[in-house]
Structures are given as structure tokens and as C-alpha cells.
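Contributing: when you submit paired examples, paste them exactly as shown. First protein:
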Amino acid sequence: MQLLSLKLNNFRNYADVDVTFSSGVNIFLGPNAQGKTNLLEAIYVLALTRSHRTRLDKDLIGWGGKEAIVSGVIQRAYGDVPLSLAFTSKGKKARMNHLDQAKLAQYIGQMNVILFAPEDLELVKGSPQIRRHFIDREFSQMSPKYLFVANQYRMVLRQRNQYLKQLSTKQATDELFLDVLTEQLVTYGSELILRRIKLLTQLAAAAKPIHAAITENQEVLEIKYMSQVDDSSLQSQETIQAALNQRFEKIKAREIFMGTTLIGPQRDDLQFLVNDHDVATFGSQGQQRTTALAVKLAEIDLMKAETGEYPILLLDDVLSELDASRQTHLLTAMQDKVQTFITTPSLSDVAKQLIKEPKIFNVKAGQLIDDNQ
């Protein structure tokens, strides 16, 4: 999979951009605060219909404008696919093959990207919410079924929380409707947990040898799914359903009193173990960064296995956060495998030595200059 071209109209600080890319490594080079990250954000938005930097689509619209348009052409194994997204104050509209898409879920997955930015180092030591967001974002790209189940779960969860709040404030009294919502939540929640475990098991298997190579076989990485359901119940959808039903029955009165759902995959977490120790708590900063890097590199092969094509790799100023050894592993792993986009204020000696024939764009104040022309 490759992004052949990108067009931006009134996106962030880019008034009008029309650019074509190399199938290998593309580098956006220039000082900070010139718009390098905005370019990677545009590619990310084109893939996932939303930004990784803001929840507000209006933030993507250039100053004083009413609309932002991001469009591009991706090359898939079966042919070229034009994609387009328009953002206005009233919402967003997605088009694929020049046809409007009624549902964004039908659009997501056409273009798969993996983003690695300095904040991704928080994947290991950050909050559980960061890790849940990570697995939902990445697994939704890999599996349309996962995306569907996750969306259905979130919809029922919102309905259940709203009704619990009504029960807690005596605006509603019918607990039978709560039982109906609980049944739906358990059905989708058990399938979501099971799909997470399946994909996470594959991700862990791919990350383990990568981590071992980076640490010269001195460390062993394990990734565990931390659920409120006992490990013994995480065997099938039926056993997970039974465990969730039992938990919900026990805390029903408490949930009504609190006015919110207290258990489920929306509260689960990941744990990263290095040599049997929790790296978030006991690991050094170097170990935490190595773990994050191994997981990100493992995603490349997992996405290839699940979708049949390699994703597009986005590296947002991450080289400056890695030492020479980790830079070497990252740059070696991506060479001749995935189309890559890198933002950086300057190229390190390691990057200059390892990156083969990069296409370099100089970025200044929302302007792109192709250094290869």
C-alpha cells in the first residue's frame, strides 16, 4: 500500500498543496513550527477520518476558512483508490472512488497507517486510556469486524450510562430496561474482549523477537491483557459472557447508585513485562522506549498479516527521541518494506547512512519545496 499523492486545501497552515510521493522514504525537513507535523496529520486524517492531535474537526480548518479538504490517491494491490475528506463546521463528508460514503465505517480501512510520535512513548508508562485507545485505533484498521463491534459496544455503553444516570436521579424506575441494555452490552463486550485478546496475542508474538534483537537477547518482552474478568474465564465468548453477567449482577445496585457502568472492556488495560517485571513501574526510560518501539514495529507485520498489505508508516520527529542503536533498528526494519514519511528538523548521521534514496521536502511556513527537483 502506498500514498501516491496528496492534496490539501485550507488544511491547518496549508492553503493549497498538491504533491506526489516516493514509494520509499519521504522526509519533511525544516525548523519547528513550520507545518511538518501538519502534513503527517493530514495523511493520518485521510486514513482514519479524524486527527490524532485534536477531537475538534474545526481545528483542522485553516484560519478564517469555512472548509478544509484532504484528498489523495492510494495504490492498493487491486488498483488505485481516490480518497477525499471535507471538513466544515457542520461535520465531515467522506468520498471513496469519487462516491459519497454514508458511513465512515465503510471508509476506514481503505488506507492503513501506523503513526509513531514522541507521545507514543507514553504507551508504556501512560494512563490505561492511552493503551485502550491504541488497541482500538490500530485493531479497527486491521479488522472491519472489530471496528463494527467496538462501535456497537460504545453505542450501547452510552445508552446504558444515560439510563443509569436517570435511575440514580429517580428520573426512571424501570430496571427491566437496564437488564435489556446490560444483555446487549455483555454480548458486544464479550466479543470485543475476545477479539482484543486474539489480535494482542499475535502482536505480542511479533514484538517479542524484535524486542530481543534490540536488546541483544538480554531481555524478554511479554504483553498481557488486563481484564476485570478472571483469566480463567477469558477462553471463549461464552465464558466471558458468563463472567460479565455474574459481575454485573453483583454490582447492579452500586451502578444504579453511582449512575455509571463500572466494568467492561472500556476499563481494561495492557501490561508490558520485561524479564517478568512491569516495565511501566520498574523499567528504565530506555527499556520503556525499547518496548514502545518493538510494539510499533510489530504492528507493521501484524497489519500485513491481517490485511494482506503493508501499512504506511508515519514517523513524527521520533528519530530525535531515540538513540543511535534504536534509530538503527527502526530504520533497518522499515527499509524496502513500507512507504515511510518522516518529519525532522535535521537528519542524524545514522539516518543519512541508512535511508536509501529518500525524497526530501523542505518545509517552511506552510510551503513545500521538493529538494529532489
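Second protein:
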Amino acid sequence: MAPTDINTARKFSVAPMLDWTDRHCRYFYRLMSKNVLLYTEMVTTGAIIFGKGDYLGFNQEEHPVALQLGGSNAEDMARCAEQAQALGYDEVNINVGCPSDRVKNGSFGACLMAEPDVVAASVQQMQKAVDIPVTVKSRIGIDDMDEYEDLTRFIKTVADAGCEHFIVHARKAWLQGLSPKENREIPPLKYERVYQLKQEFPQLHISINGGIKTLSDVKTHLDYTDGVMMGREVYSNPWILTQVEAELFNLQTSFSREDIVTLMIPYVERHIAGGGRAWHVIRHMLGLYQGEPASRIWRRYLSENAIKPGTQASVLNEAVDAMMTTRAKLKSREEYLS
């Protein structure tokens, strides 16, 4: 199947999540959804330009896929955007939302909301360098700069530089006193502020992010915005992507969770053959049976066995067998008691 057009895919995207949405995770997600837009973990310009790792590698099956880039030097941002385009990424996204100290000390992430001209300069330089879309992911505000007027000033400045697509996390970020985890939970969600933003800037593509857990929530937000980004809920319950396919993209899926396991086995085998460990891939699959009978057995079996050095891809089938055995025992017990 040909990759979905990125403008269609923006209706639903999976958030960039540090240490989670790596290339193995994205490959796994793509087996359950051909249409959603996937994002990499944030990669800094310093890592790309000076690092020795393969920070930009991805599987061709991941399309449409966007690189999330962290940085504030316009020339470096443009240089990295060029590399991303050359490798085949469908979009480059600028991180203006991460509140961690490491990001703040590097002068990128949420602290850049206080410097819209810096973000605008990066957008301009990047768009001169590439043909793929350059987008921005932000918060609704930071610290005491959290009035609606502060947000619109940021959006207008960056939009005037040429950015047409913003993903807005509907919480402010406290850059002093709260950890990244607390910044995902403590500042209140203000979805109405993102709705208002779409009304004020109807020409822009505005996606909403933050605290979204159900397909019902997604559909409600789509009444007021152009797209929805979901993060932690997808990671804990990846099967929700099949519901997204059916309900948002009108594509019914006929495969089972066991079919996904079967499809992942050769991928794990290739990773092991290349010198990797099974756990690098399998750790992203623990939520596959979330909400299903005996799903705890699946998670426990993999957590205890897949993490061991030398583990082979067959551990996935072993985990399925353990889960199915427990299900059969539970069913027999229920029938005995009925």
C-alpha cells in the first residue's frame, strides 16, 4: 500500500515521546495503522551534526513519518532539515514544548515560546533549505507568559515566517519547579484555548495534544481543530490504532493481535541478526493485549524473559502461549462454577 498523504495523516498523529517512539516502536505501530502520522523522538541538532550514532535512521515502512528536531540555531536547524529531507522524512517538526532542564539549558524546547523571533528565524531558514513541511509543536504558554495574548503573539510571529501547521499541547509548562512528568499532569488542560486559536487563525492547520485518552475525546476535538495528537494512551494501548483506522479513516482491519505478533517476529529476528537485542523491540509491545483476558500474563512473561541477553524472537510466541493457557484455565473454571 502506498504511503498515506501527509495532509490526510495529520488528522491523527502519535506524539513524539522520548525513549519510546524509536524506529522499532514506529514499525510496530505502522502494522496496525497505515494512515496515522508518526513522529520520531526529539533529536537535537547537536546529536545529528556532531554525534556518531544513527540518529536519523528509520524503516521505509514508517511513512508518513516526521522528524522532531530540537534546536535554536537557524543554520543548524536548516542543515539538519536538509539531511532529513535527503533521507526521505515527510516533515520536520520543531520542538517548542519540552520543559526538561536539559532541553532548557540547550536553549530549545518550551523556553523558546518566550522567543518567537528565534523560532521564526529557524522556520524561515529551514523552509529555504527544504521542500517538505516545517511544523511547530508548542505549549499554550510558559511560566507567567500564559495569557492567550502571549500564545497568539507566538503563533502569529511564527506563522508570518511561513509555518502553516502547529501542534499545540493544551497545558502551559512550568520551567521552574516541575519535572517533565509533573508538567504532563499538574498544569490544567485548557482545550478551549486551542479551539479559540483555530477560530482566530482559520487558515492555519491546528492540531491539539494533551491528556487525550479515548476515540470519543478525539472526535470531540476534531469538531474544533484540524487534527489530534495522542501520546501516552497509544503507548499503553497500541491496539487503539486499529480503532482510529476504522473510525477516522474508514479502513476496516481484519487482522488480530496474534497476527501482529506473527508479523513482528521476522522484524525482531532481523534486529537480532544486526547485533541488537530482542528487548529493544519487544519492550514496545507490552501493551498489545491491554484490556484483554490474561493480558497480565503476556506483560509479565515478556518482562521477565525478553529482557534476558540472548533472547530470541520466539519469546513472543511463548508469551502468547502462556497467555492462552491461562485464558483456557480461567474459562474452564468459569464453566465449572456456572
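If you have annotations for the second protein, write them as plain sentences, like these:
The chain has a mean pLDDT of 93.
The CA atoms of residues 169 and 209 lie 4 Å apart.
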